Amino acid sequence: MTTPHRPRAQQHATRAAFFIPGFATAMWATLVPFAKDRTGANDATLGLVLLCLGAGSLLAMPLAGLLAARVGCRAVMIATTALILVTLPGLVLAPSAWTLGLVLFAFGAGVGAMDCTMNVQAVVVERDSGRAMMSGFHAFYSIGGFIGGAAMTVLYTVLAPLPSVLAGMAALVLLAMASVRHWRSERAGHEGPMLAWPRGVVLFISLLAFVAFLAEGAMMDWSAVFLADVRGVATAHAGIGFATFALTMTVARLFGDPVVERLGHRRTIVLGSLLGAAGVLVLTLVTPWQASLAGYVMLGLGCANVVPALFSLAGNQKRMPESIAITAVTTLGYAGVLAGPALIGFGAHHIGLVGAFIGVAAALLLVAASTRWLKA
After folding, report:
1. Is 148 found in the same domain as 221?
2. Angstrom distances, CA of residue 245 to CA of 217, 289, 320
3. Looking at the 3D structure of the chain, how many domains does it have?
4. pTM
C-alpha cells in the first residue's frame, strides 16, 4: 500500500522520480564519444544507432501507461528504474554498433516508460495537494540532467568510463531506495479498455504537447547550427543559445507553480505560447547574436510551463482515464521531440533555417489561439 498521510514525502519522491531519468539520460549523453570509439561506428552508423533510443521509448510508453493502471505506478517505476540501471554498463561495454543499438533500445524503453509513469504519479500527487506542482516536478528532470552531465564529466577526469558509470548508478540506487516507499501503488479504477487511441480533448491536448515538445527539440538540435551558420558564431561557442534556453526553462519550471496557480492552466498555455513565439522571432530576426540571446530567454520562459500545464489538464479531464491520457500526451510529446529536428531540417532545405524557425513561431501562435477550446 502507499504510505498514508505523507503528502510531503510523496512530493519529494515524485521529484526523485523525475530526477532519475534526467540523470541517467545525461550519463548516456556523456558516454556517446566513448561508445563511438569502442564500437568503431562512423557518423552515419551512430546516427542509426541513436534512433534505437527513441524507438525504445516510443514503444514502451503505451505499455507503461497500461501497466501503471493495472498494477500501480510504484511497481512500474521500480521495474523501469531497474531496467535503466542494468543497461547503463552495457552502454559502456557494448563491443559493436548493433549490440550498442540493442542495449540503447532497452535503455530507451526504460527511460520512456519511466517518463510516462512518473507523469501519472505527478498528476495524482498534484491533485491530492490541491495546488499546482507539475512545473516543479518537471524542473527536476532538467536538474537531474544538469547534475548528471556535470558529475560524469568530473568523474571522467579521474576514473575510466565504467567505474564512473558504476558510481552514477550507485547514486541513483540510493535515491530510488529512499523514494520507492512513497511512490503511489493504487490501481486505476474504471470501466473499459486500459489502452485506447486518444480522442476528444485528450487528442487535442496531445497535439498541443506535440507542438510544445517540437519547439524544445528544435532548439536542442538546431540552435547551435543557427548561431554558427546564420549568425557566424564560432562553432565552439554556438552552444550558448541552447544553454541559455535550457537554463532559463529549468529555473522557470522550478519557480513556475505559483505562476500556474495564479493564472490557471489555460492562460498559462496562452501566455507561454505567445511569449515562446515572440522569443523565436527575436532570436531569428534580431542582430547582433548577443542581443538575440534575449529570444532564447523568452522562449525558455514561454515553453517552461506549457508542457506541465498540458499534463495537468490531461490528468484532470473526465473524457478518458488518466493513465491513457498521460500516455497519449507523453508519447505524442516525445514524438514531437524526435520529429521536430527532422521537420526543421526539411524546412531549412526548402525555405532556409530562418524560415523554418519562423514556422515554429507560427505553430506556437496556433497553440495560443486554439486554447479557447480548453477548459481552465
Report:
1. no
2. 12, 14, 34
3. 2
4. 0.80
